[in-house]
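Subject: Interface between my chains keeps coming out wrong

I've been trying for a while to get a sensible model of this assembly. When I model each chain on its own everything looks fine, but I need the whole thing in one frame so I can look at the contacts. Pasting all components below, labels as-is. Any help appreciated, I'm running out of ideas.
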Amino acid sequence: DADVTQTPRNRITKTGKRIMLECSQTKGHDRMYWYRQDPGLGLQLIYYSFDVKDINKGEISDGYSVSRQAQAKFSLSLESAIPNQTALYFCATAGRATTGNTGELFFGEGSRLTVL
Amino acid sequence: GNSVTQMEGPVTLSEEAFLTINCTYTATGYPSLFWYVQYPGEGLQLLLKATKADDKGSNKGFEATYRKETTSFHLEKGSVQVSDSAVYFCALRTGGGNKLTFGTGTQLKVEL
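Reply #2:
Try treating it as a single job with all components included. I did that and got this:
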C-alpha cells in the first residue's frame, strides 16, 4: 500500500459544485501539503500544515480551503468549483527537522480533477 | 522571491545517449537544491539533492553539482535508458518548513 494515499484519483464535476479531495498518510509525518500541477507551470503550493492545529496559505490558496482532521489526514476542498481549477492535485508529507527531516517531500499519486 | 528556471522539453534521446537538463535558480539566502522525478501516472519522488555549494548529489547514475557562482544545478547522466523516460523537476528550498519552489519540469523521452 502507498504511504501517501489520495482519493479520488479521478473526478469530473460541474461548475459550482463542491468537491473534496482527501489525503491520508502512514508515514507518521507532521507536515502535510497540497500542490497543484498544471502543464507548463510546474507545481504550485496551495496550503500546508505543520500539525493538526496549524494551517497556512500557500501561493495560490484563493478558491480553496483545507481541513487537518488528524495528523494523518489532510483534505482539500473546492467550495464552488470553476473550470480553471481543472488540474492534477498532489498531496505531500514531510518529517519534522528534529526527526531527521532531510528536506524531502513524499508525494501521493495525484488526483486528477476536471471541472466542466 | 525565489524562482527556478528549467530548460523546456520535451527532450528526446536515444538509449545510451548523454543527458543534460539545465536548471538555474534565483533565491535569497543559501538554498538547498533538489531534483525530483515523476514517472507516468505517479507522484513525484526525490532523485537527488545538494544542501551547500559545491556539493554533488547522485543517485541511479544521475548527478548534479550545486554551483553557487553560476546559480545552477544541472542534471546529468552518462547513459540514459528507456526506463528513465519521465518528467524531471528542479526545486529549491530556503529556510525551514519544506516549502519547495519548483521549476516547470522537463519531459525526457528515451527511445530505443
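Reply #3:
Confirming on my end. The interface with chain B takes residues 4, 31, 33, 40-45, 48, 50, 58, 90, 92, 94, 97, 101-110 of chain A (CB under 8 Å).
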